[in-house]
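Worked problem 6 (solution included).
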Amino acid sequence: MSMSLAWQDRARCRDLDVEMFFPEKGRAARAAKRVCMECPVRVECLEYALRRRETEGVWGGLTPTERRRLARERRRIPA
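Solution. The predicted structure is:
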């Protein structure tokens, strides 16, 4: 699975503490989500996480639970 990761160079999170995007279980992800909502590559990041089936962290503004829900919804809706 080959995919360009050039979008990562424009990500708002690039120079931030990675811990913010991988909060401990039960901790709020609000701070990470705020950064994501203003990020110019939010969609690319989210699609990357969905394709890779990332199970941890906030990607594209969504938590693992939110990404699983989105993936299920996408599978239900024919392309």
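Discussion: The helical segments are 30-37, 42-52, 64-76.
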